[in-house]
Design brief:
single chain; 273 residues; alpha+beta; four-stranded antiparallel β-sheet; 10 strands; DNA-binding
Amino acid sequence: MPELPEVETVSRDLSGTLLGLTIKKVEIIDARVVRDILPAKFCAVLKAKIIKRISRRGKAIIFGFDSGPFFIVQLMMTGQLVHAAALPVPVLKETKVIFTLSDGSHLLYNDQRLFGRLTLIENLNDFRHFQLLGPEPFETDFNPDYMQGVLKNKTVAIKKVLLDHGFVAGIGNIYASEILFRCRIDPRRNAKSLDVKEITSLHYQIIEVLQEAIEYRGSSMRNYRDGQGKKGRFNERIRVYARENESCPNCSHKVLRITQGGRSTFFCKKCQR
DNA sequence: ATTCTGTCCTGTAGGC
DNA sequence: TGCCTACAGGACAGAA
């Protein structure tokens, strides 16, 4: 499901409702989502922990407690972290883990496809995924100079580079297509063929599109829900993603769908060069 | 050293 | 109605 804007939305939502609460009970319904730790230990370690901080790095949500390890959640394609304040607890077929909190509310981890990963780690620097992650798009180390330095050696399509989380963290399949559409850059272009002007535009639109998507609380294609279980509103701003054969908002040419690296890309052949 | 391919899963939509 | 195929917000191991 979620890319940076969706994960940021969930992280902010949960920061607003969970800080200061204690985890009273952890029920694992499907242990396949718990990684690199025995399920029984996972429950035991989290029990009685006070939630002190909730943050995001790339597409991962990080819970910090009064003591002990960090709890990391990667929602992957269909994961959801939903805080249910009222009873009855809205348990679904997709609910895989239930956290009971000290105020009687519940945090549900839902995941249709079970690709999501819940893990505990003592030191964030030891988390392999974080070691492979590139700069955050909103940080100053992600800038046109950095981009130029990387792109000049890249022989793959620019769309695939945007999806490479070692290049920049947090962009996924929806926003890669949307960003390139707004830059009017053809997703099939060899990354090293971009000139300085195009790289500057790409840098600007990466930030612009992601920030706008955060303002709209993310995109809900299918499964995505925010921290309260509600859909995002960025779908109304999406110009090309999942709009094959619809007309381009700029030129009315048909939006095309192609496959790159086994994943769909949507673009306008006339507007994007 | 990069880049590509297959895989982990469940569910839904569309064609016939 | 059912059966079949294609596809779905991600990430990574292992192969090329």
